[in-house]
Each structure stands twice: as C-alpha cells, then as structure tokens.
Design goal:
CATH superfamily: Farnesyl Diphosphate Synthase
CATH architecture: Orthogonal Bundle
Mean pLDDT: 92
Helix content: over 70%
Strand order of the largest sheet: 1-2
Structural class: mainly alpha
Largest sheet: 2 strands, antiparallel
CATH class: Mainly Alpha
Low-confidence stretches: none
Length: 359
C-alpha cells in the first residue's frame, strides 16, 4: 500500500473516530436524565460511569468507519440515522467487552481496569455482587444499543430494518461467545471451527452489521449485495481475529493495552495457540498444554510458549496468513464497480493498511 493511500485511509478513519467520540460523549452526558435514574440509587450512576469510562477509553472505532463508508458507497449526502447506528454499534461493542472480560476473568481492558475488576475492587468482600453488577452493566449496554435506534428520527420502516440488523447481530454474538467456550474443549480446533467462531463472535456484528446499516441508511437494500458483503466481511473478520490472537502472543502489551499471554492464561485455543499446538513436537505440546488455562502463568511461561511458536515457524505463518486474507479482502472490495469509486477504494485499501499496522 503506497504512502498516499495509507495517509488517505488513516485520515478518513481518524475523521470518523474524532466526530464519533464527540457524539459519544454527548450521548453519555444526557444518558442519566434520559434513563430516569432512580433518585436514591447509588449503584445506577456508578454503572453509567463505568459504561462511559470503558466506552470512551480508546478503541479504533473501525466499526464506525465501516458504517459511514458503507453509506458513502451510495451517496456523499448527510444520511439521517447514521449517528444513531454508530452509537448502537459501539454500545453493543461495550456490552461484548464487559461480558468477554467476565468470561475470561480479565483484569484489564483498553489500558485500564475491566468493568468486572473495577467492581471487584469496590466490593472486595462481596464477590457475587461484583459479578452481578458487571453482568448487569453489560446487559444495560446491550439494551441501550437497541433503544438508541428506537429513538432515531428516521422513517419507521428504516428503523425496523436497522433494529433487525442489530438484533440479529447481538444474538449471533452471544452464540459466538458460546461457540468460543465450546472451542476450548476441543483438543486441537481445526480451521473450519476457528473460522466459525470468528464468524459468529466477531464478523457478523463488527463487520457485516456496520456495512448493512450504512447501506440501509443510505437507501440501498443490502440483501441485493449479500454475497459480496459476506465475502468481504468474512475475510476481514478472519484477519482481524488472527491479528488480535497474534498480538496477544507476540505483541507489545504497552501497545495492545492488556498483558501478553491473556489467551494462554485463559485457556483459549485461539488461532495463534492452535497453530502452536499443531506445529509443536510432543514434548513442546505438553509444555503448551500445561500452560493453557493457568491463570497464574508467569511472563517466563508465556515467553517459553512464544519461543516454541517462533521455533516452529508459527509467527511467520500467522503473518503470512493475515496478509493473504487482507489481500483477498482488498481484491473483493476492488470488484465493487457498481458503487462510488472513492468509497470502494477505501474498502479496498483498509485491509492492507490494517494488517500492515499489525506487522
């Protein structure tokens, strides 16, 4: 990807992120009043505070960029409903992060404490209360993601169509969480299973739903283009998940925002760790298996697994696979000749920029 194209993609993503972050802050500023928070409740304002903190604390806002650029495939006019769709997408993401961290018993997220651990610190002698409040915070974010669409000032038919997209995406994501846990009971997940988990847990709500919502808001029927949208979303979802798994094992935790080896300690048979298990010798596999699911695994243990991965060529193979999927996604988008060239170019360039940033 040339420097000019990279700069253009970065500028577009940064612009969408900057505008959305300001809108997200405004949303949270008015949320307590809109909800009608009980006057005597102390826990409800704290829940909203934690939702705000996690939601505004970083994040690439790639979903927001995909949403707006999907609308730009059709038109450059202002499109009613996009702001509400963006809020819905990111509130659903907040829900997923909170519940992910509960499932994984993760202490950190986006460079700060996870919502679950924030509650654990506040209620050190009431573990079930901390757990319950974290679950409810995630639930509230999910329901708010639908409510914000219900409140959108758009035609009823469009509102119903967008709600259907988000409701389906939310249900698929929960199914993906279930599959994610099921995958870790398979000694050596194959590629098909790993792709299926990624499809349900990530692709459908993070890539496909923003594309559909953007096109709907712009007056296009996404069902007419379902096959090509799914191909693009699938390829992007796979390399994005591979990248996350790769960075968890090989990345700099100061950049990633959470400790290295989180998947290893949680016993997650991710793309990266499944590849290590498949490539390792019997003795090496025993080392990896003994570390999988040990929450007290040390940095030295993670280093040992990382060294096995590098010795067996797993790091290079993952990098090659990520690049291949990114290139295929780019080629798919480049074939969208029936849409506006500027936005098509964005979708074609974005996968290459995204994977190069990780490598």
């Amino acid at each position: 990807m040339n420097d000019t194209a990279t700069a253009t993609a970065l500028e577009r993503v940064a612009g969408h992120r900057h505008r959305f972050n300001a809108r997200f802050e405004t949303y949270f500023d008015s949320l307590a009043a809109d909800l009608g928070t009980p006057a005597r409740s102390r826990f409800t304002p704290r829940c909203l505070e934690l939702l705000r903190d996690l939601s505004l604390r970083g994040g690439k806002r790639l979903r927001v960029a995909l949403l707006h650029e999907a609308a730009r495939l059709v038109t450059t006019d202002d499109v009613p409903g996009l702001d509400e769709a963006a809020l819905s997408i990111e509130l659903l993401q907040t829900h997923g992060l909170i519940h992910d961290d509960i499932i994984d018993d993760a202490p950190a997220r986006r460079g700060g404490p996870s919502t679950y651990y924030a509650y654990r610190e506040e209620f050190p002698r009431h573990e079930q209360t901390a757990l319950g409040l974290a679950v409810l915070a995630g639930d509230l974010a999910a329901f708010l993601s639908l409510r914000v669409l219900l409140d959108a000032d758009i035609p009823a038919e469009l509102r119903q169509a967008m709600l259907r997209v988000q409701t389906d995406a939310a249900a698929d994501t929960v199914t993906g969480q279930i599959l994610d846990l099921e995958r870790d009971f398979v000694p050596l997940p194959d590629e098909e299973l790993l792709h299926t988990v990624t499809d349900y847990k990530t692709t459908r709500y993070s890539i496909l739903a923003p594309l559909r919502l953007g096109l709907l808001a712009a007056g296009e029927d996404p069902a007419r283009h379902d096959a090509r949208l799914r191909r693009y979303a699938t390829l992007v979802g796979i390399y994005e998940q591979m990248r996350d798994d790769y960075l968890d094992l090989f990345g700099d935790e100061n950049v990633v925002g959470k400790p290295s080896g989180s998947d290893l300690r949680a016993g997650r048979r991710s793309y990266a760790l499944s590849a290590v298990l498949a490539a390792a010798t019997d003795d090496e596999r025993a080392v990896v298996e003994s570390a999988l699911g040990d929450p007290h695994g040390t940095a030295a243990t993670v280093d040992g697994v990382r060294e096995i991965a590098r010795r067996r060529g797993v790091e290079d193979r993952l990098r090659s696979d990520m690049r291949r999927y990114a290139e295929e996604a780019s080629a798919e988008a480049a074939s969208w000749h029936h849409w506006r060239e500027e936005a098509v170019t964005f979708f074609a360039r974005l996968p290459l920029w995204s994977v190069e940033r990780a490598l």
